[in-house]
Amino acid sequence: MKKLFYTMGLLLLMASCSNDYTDWANPQSNHEDPATVSLTIQPAEAIDFAKLTTDSVQLFTPVVKAAEGSVNTYTVVLYNTDKSDSKALKADALGKVKSAELEEAVLQLFGHRPVARTIDLDVTAYTIIEGQSIKNQASTKAIITPEAPVIENTYYLVGGINGWDNNNKDFPVENSGADVYKDPVFTITLTAAQVGNGVEFKLNPVSGIGSWDKCYTASKDEAEGKIAGGNAGGNLKVEAVENAKYYKLEFNMLDLTFKVTPMSDPELYLTGNHYDWGKTWKQLVPVYGTTDLFWTIVYLHAGEQFKFAPQADWGNDFGMQATIHEEANAGVSDTDGNITIANAGWYQLTVTNGASRSVTISKPKVYLIGNTVGSWGIEDVNLFTEPTTEDGVFVSKAFAKADEVRMCVSVPGHDWWQSEFIVTAKGKIDYRGKGGDQTRVNVKAGQKAYLNFSKGTGKYQ
Q: Which CA distances in Å does 300 have to 71, 278, 345, 348, 360?
């Protein structure tokens, strides 16, 4: 318990320094007894937003001893775990706050994960005695559980694409690798062949493999785009769309919504003798904001032949028919229209597949950019080292600052963000391509980025 005695001189001083205090109407003698106020703050019962039904909720219980007729108002500050962030709320004379405001503050400080949080509270009380505002402070804790669905790390499509086998894991649906309550959007891309004339399915969480009990289906109330667990509704569906090449499925497991985006943007693929002439097609990355420009970083072998096609199949393919710009001493030659390389090594291929076609073969230039290196321009001082072997790793300089990592390759005539990429929290190289701003990953000062373009993986350490 705190017990503060405020003498006339102290009150007058506070009144002159702060708007929180008003002047005494009738100055008193120092011989009179000072105003006395004591404040004790006690914790309230634990709050679970999944069970809360009222507009206001008891956040703490105040006990104030002061003159009869006093009025008390409160400001309460909530802190995150390491007290690096805080939120302030107004409380009434009973220690109650608005439920919606409290929930918003907790979500901003701790996220949506539905676990009980023990939260530090600092409470400031203002007690009005004879028109004067007297300030008092105390601290306590609150236990609060946000309301949110349980989100698992991986889900799987089960339906017409895999014979309705609920043990099947051929179609994993995953997020970026970030905490699932910070990035609750899980995605998978299906080809036009997989969708066919349309396909029905359910979404099974990893904990439900082998069972239908936990499957997500269309919401029983038939709200458009809503899904629900417990296998309670009808099948989810993807309708075939004319000329669509792919279908991007997105599941927001926090909002419990589902949407499908048909995609038909131009694409470009590479194959050759190293890929068994069409058994494998390596997809190039589109340059953001363009319709016909693509790039990739690839290890080419001595004597390797390759060519390109606008789909993962033969048709309208090209090699030496394009204008070739050799900038890396690769030793390019023509073998029956295929591009042949004499000198093994790592190369960046930048390809235009428009009204005119061109292929630029250059040395790969991979850069760190942004706050981690203190520069938002492409500078050679931030260039990755290049390996000499096919299984080698590109290595960055050490990060000068802890922040969100940004990386890119250099595509002449285009800004860095048009060819940027990151390594996700799951260790996959994720190219922006034509997509929006990527889920950011934070790194520590002194760490480096390691990129294995052969495997499409990377790490920070």
A: 79, 17, 6, 10, 14
pTM score: 0.64
Q: What angle do CA 154, 155, 160 make, to 5 degrees?
A: 150
Please name the residue ranges forming H helices in 80-223. Answer: 99-110, 192-195
Give the integer Cα–Cα distance in Å for 262 and 245.
Answer: 7
Measured from the Cβ of residue 148, the count of other Cβ atoms closer than 10 Å reads 18
What are the backbone dihedrals phi and psi of residue 422, each rounded to the nearest 5 degrees, phi first?
Answer: -140, 170
Measured CA to CA, the distance from residue 21 to residue 59 in angstroms comes to 26
Q: Are 399 and 448 spatial neighbours (Cβ–Cβ below 8 Å)?
A: yes
pLDDT tens-digit map of 165-207:
999 999 999 988 888 998 899 999 898 889 999 999 999 999 9
Write the CATH number of the domain with boundaries 38-145: 2.60.40.3640
Q: Is 169 helix (H, G, I), strand (E, B) or coil?
A: coil
State residue 81 phi and psi, 5-degree precision. -60, -45
Burial class from Cβ neighbours inside 10 Å (0-12, 13-18, 19+) for residue 151 reads buried
Is 154-263 in CATH node 2.60.40.3620? yes
Closest CA relative to residue 202, chosen from 225, 227, 175: 227
Judged by DSSP in three states, 316 sits in: coil
Alpha helices, H only, 8-81 = 8-17
In whole angstroms, how far apart are CA 438 and each of 373, 430, 432? 19, 9, 7
- What distance in Å separates the CA atoms of residue 232 and residue 203, rounded to the nearest whole number? 12
pLDDT digits (tens, 9 = 90+) for 18-37: 333 333 333 443 434 445 67
Distances from the Cα of 332 to the Cα of 11, 296, 347, 454, angstroms: 87, 17, 12, 22
What are the boundaries of each domain within the chain?
38-145, 154-263, 268-362, 366-460
Domain 268-362 belongs to what architecture? Sandwich (2.60)
DSSP state of 379: -
> Which CATH number fits the domain 366-460, given the four candidates 3.40.50.2000, 2.60.40.1880, 2.60.40.3610, 3.40.190.10?
2.60.40.3610
**Pairing label, strands 285-286, 96-98:** unpaired
Contact call for residues 125 and 62 (beta carbons, < 8 A): yes
Handedness of CA 26, 30, 35, 38 (dihedral sign): positive
**Within this chain, domains 38-145 and 154-263 share the same CATH topology:** yes
